[in-house]
Amino acid sequence: MYARSILFNVVFYVNFAVQAIVFSPMLLLPQRYGIWVTKFWTASSLFWHRLICGVKEDVRGLENIPKGGCIIAAKHQSTWETMRLVYMLDKPAYILKRELMWIPLLGWYMKKYGHIPVDRGSRSKALFSITEHAKDRVAKGFQVIIFPEGTRRAPLAPPNYRYGVVHLYKELQVPVVPVALNAGLYWPRRSFAHIPGTVRVEVLPPIEPGLDSATFAAKLQQSIEDKTNELMQEARDRDPATRRIVVEEHVAEVT
User: Fold this and answer.
1) Which pLDDT score, from 0 to 100, does residue 250 have?
2) pLDDT score, position 21
3) Dihedral (CA of 218, 223, 224, 227) sign
4) What is the pLDDT of residue 94?
5) What is the pTM of this model?
6) How far apart are CA 217 and CA 134, in angstroms?
7) Which segments in the chain show pLDDT lower than 50?
8) Which of 57, 94, 98, 212 is the most buried if burial means most Cβ atoms within 10 Å?
């Protein structure tokens, strides 16, 4: 397992470096001509992940993604879903830390292809900036991706949903699509190892605009958490190797 993980990490970074350089002329063209670049990189990265580490996928509910602009609210356990969501959607736009935009090559591509930086210095300024950028992206047909808990969480960690997604729901008046997953069992955060098995992702029916903030927040959290727990149980039943990861991640979270 560890030998495969080492090999994958080498391939992962080499794959990015080569593609970032080869496709760099696309940065000079209008956005619409090169949006496929990040999709190709993420798809190829997960191809190597599947081939080297034996991590397959089972993606359900794609028919629940509406056409045009919307908000995708996804559970966040791993690096895996940050890549898979990119080529799951027509025009993805992540809400992400502003500092990522400063990374050579990677940041250039993120800025070029519509991702939204967050300045965490001031909460009110950050919300205003995110909202204005998100309105622009949605109007252009992008699916704005937000992780409601803000950061990666261990598989058994108690939910910690933040206000940002509620604010966007109120301000943008577009459907919010919940996404549940169990990727943290196979590409654990803060871990070098990659566990063979099948990542399960389920796109749930969209929550239409019009609910009050409290009702929306409760509905979003319940839908994501209930389905995530089901997917976690399914993984434990089918992939016994994941049980150790659940325990280790939970211990790390509470300590």
Assistant:
1) 47
2) 94
3) positive
4) 93
5) 0.90
6) 19
7) 247, 250-251, 254-255
8) 94
Q: Which residues contact 88 (CB under 8 A, 6 or more apart)?
A: 59, 62, 65
**Residue 104: predicted pLDDT:** 82
CB 172 within 8 A of CB 135: yes
Q: Say how many residues make up the chain.
A: 255
**Which amino acid, residue 9?**
N
- Predicted local distance difference test score (pLDDT) of residue 136: 93
